[in-house]
Structure formats: structure tokens, C-alpha cells
């Protein structure tokens, strides 16, 4: 899923106070210097601070590229705009009560104060639910699209030519089939953090193109909830019209179901409430056993499936 695939991506950080890269304003060295240099102003509000009394704040706080068109007044404006933030940021640390009672630790997944994630039975049960839901989804996908339609590497499909007008069609060959990307998270909206794309490559009229097997894949004249749970795969924007010739060497169902994604990572990064909000409907649809209430816990199950 997207959030897992992008887990190692380093996002650029830019400070909202000094505009330098590599830190945010919470860790801005310029802000701390300016706070320390203006200790005599700490009892005043932003409105009562006279700009002329502000010390040590000038345009050198900004990256050099700003120096040609930023003046010291811009730095003063930033100082004044962040004065209340500085008071909240720094005063609270300096006046921390030594006998402040420490909050009791709680599980980051279910919220219980009796254990942590490592010992959370709800977390382990939830991973089981996700794996079983995914296995059932893949079984349904295999029956409908792989076995039923013949999708797979080497399949010939009639599709709208991505290099021509919409009315132009051609026969293309699927040069790959991303079996490992077939997950129930295919059904999430494409830009959702929990969605999984299943990009496949096709060769059409001597040119290579890509499209997503999980969204807007199959063409339909109407978008009126066609194909029920699979509706995200069918749309008027879909490229595949039909399968002309099935894949010659499709994987067996046992092999297909043996592919296992890593849900252990996602439950370490997100809590049960967040994940149930995202997946409750899909879990209810695909989970293959009759013990879902026991696995999720009665309180969670009754809340998300509105049992009274």
C-alpha cells in the first residue's frame, strides 16, 4: 500500500521561521537565539513590543538567496509573528514543575494502559483479520479476473489506444502481471495513503504503456455502481474493452493465494481506530470466517458495524 511503499521516502523539511532547510521551527536554532537575546521582552505581548527594542534579529537568519530582496524588517516581522509561539514553546520548558505527575503509558494500537503494542492481543488478532481478508480478496480476484477473464502475463486484450484518440482501439499484450500487488487495498481511492496500485505494462502497436489494474481498468458505458465491490475497476475511463486471448501460463490459485503482504508494519504505525475507519467495509465484505466479532473485540465490532 502507498503508506508502506513510501515509508523510506525522505521528505524535505523547511523551517517556517527562518526558511532554512533541514529543520522545522520547533528545532530552529535562530528562534532559540532570538528568544534568549530578548529575555527582557518576555512579559510583553506582541502588541506591546516595540520593534526598535528587538535585539539580534536581522535578515541573516534567512538563507543567502533571500538577502537580496529581504530586509531586516522581514526578520522583525517573523519574530513578532512567532512571539506567542516562542512563549508557548520555551516558557513551558523553563517553568516545568519538578513534581509533575507522569502520564501512565498506554498501548499505541488499542489504547489500553495494561500493555504496549508488543503484548497487544488485539493487534495480533487484527493482523490475522487483515491477512484473512486479503487472502479472501485475492481468491475472489483470482476467480473473477485471472481464471474468469484470463488476465495474466501474455494475455491479449482489446483496449483503447493510449497514443491515439478515444475511438481508436487496438490489441495489446500484457507483458507483466503484478500478482504481489493484488490486495484488498486496491479498492481504496488511488490517492489514499492505504491504496495499492497494481501497475501493469502492455505492448500496443509497438509501443509500451502502463495502466493500473486496480482502478479504472475496464471500460463500461455507465458508472452506476457497476460490478458492486469491484466498481472502482470499471469506469468510462477504463482502457480494457475485453480479453481477446487469455494468458497462456496463468499462476495456480494455490500459488496466487500464497503471496503474503506485510501487515505487521502498518499496525506498528497506525492504531486500530484509524485502520478500522479505512478498512471496516472491506473487511466486512471479504472476511471469510464467522468469528469477526471475537477477533476484533465486541466493543470495536459493535461500534463499526452499528450493532445495538
Structural descriptors:
11% strand, 308 residues, 32% helix, flat, five-stranded antiparallel β-sheet, two-stranded parallel ribbon, alpha+beta
Explain what the structure shows.
The structure is a single chain. This protein has 308 residues and is an alpha+beta fold. Helices cover 32% and strands 11% of the residues. It has ten helices and seven strands. A five-stranded antiparallel beta sheet has the order 4-3-2-1-7, with no helix packed on it. The protein has a two-stranded parallel sheet with strand order 5-6. A hairpin with a 2-residue loop joins strand 3 and strand 4. Helix 5 (121-147) crosses helix 8 (272-286). The chain starts with a helix and ends with a helix. The model has no long low-confidence stretch (mean pLDDT 87).
Amino acid at each position: 500500500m502507498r503508506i508502506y511503499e513510501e515509508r523510506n521516502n525522505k521528505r524535505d523539511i523547511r523551517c517556517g521561521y527562518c526558511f532554512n532547510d533541514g529543520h522545522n521551527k520547533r528545532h530552529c536554532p535562530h528562534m532559540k537565539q532570538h528568544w534568549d537575546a530578548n529575555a527582557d521582552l518576555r512579559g510583553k505581548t506582541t502588541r506591546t513590543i516595540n520593534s526598535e527594542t528587538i535585539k539580534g534579529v536581522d535578515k541573516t537568519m534567512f538563507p543567502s538567496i533571500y538577502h537580496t530582496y529581504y530586509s531586516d524588517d522581514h526578520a522583525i516581522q517573523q519574530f513578532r509573528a512567532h512571539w506567542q509561539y516562542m512563549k508557548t514553546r520555551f516558557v513551558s520548558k523553563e517553568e516545568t514543575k519538578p513534581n509533575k505527575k507522569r502520564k501512565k503509558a498506554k498501548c499505541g494500537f488499542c489504547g489500553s494502559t495494561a500493555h504496549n503494542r508488543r503484548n497487544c492481543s488485539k493487534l495480533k488478532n487484527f493482523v490475522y483479520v487483515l491477512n484473512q481478508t486479503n487472502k479472501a480478496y485475492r481468491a475472489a480476484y483470482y476467480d473473477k479476473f485471472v481464471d474468469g477473464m484470463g488476465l495474466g502475463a501474455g494475455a491479449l486484450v482489446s483496449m483503447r489506444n493510449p497514443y491515439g484518440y478515444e475511438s481508436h482501439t487496438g490489441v495489446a499484450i500484457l507483458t507483466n502481471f503484478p500478482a504481489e500487488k493484488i490486495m484488498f487495498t486496491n479498492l481504496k481511492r488511488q490517492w489514499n495513503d492505504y491504496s495499492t496500485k497494481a501497475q501493469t505494462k502492455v505492448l500496443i502497436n509497438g509501443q509500451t504503456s502502463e495502466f493500473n489494474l486496480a482502478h479504472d481498468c475496464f471500460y463500461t458505458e455507465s458508472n452506476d455502481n457497476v460490478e458492486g465491490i469491484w466498481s472502482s475497476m470499471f469506469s468510462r475511463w477504463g482502457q480494457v474493452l475485453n480479453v481477446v486471448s487469455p494468458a497462456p501460463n496463468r499462476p495456480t490459485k494455490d500459488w496466487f493465494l500464497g503471496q503474503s503482504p506485510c501487515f505487521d508494519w502498518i499496525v506498528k504505525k497506525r492504531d486500530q481506530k484509524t485502520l478500522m475507519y479505512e478498512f471496516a467495509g472491506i473487511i466486512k465484505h471479504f472476511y471469510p470466517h464467522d468469528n469477526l466479532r471475537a477477533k476484533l473485540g465486541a466493543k470495536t465490532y459493535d461500534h463499526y458495524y452499528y450493532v445495538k
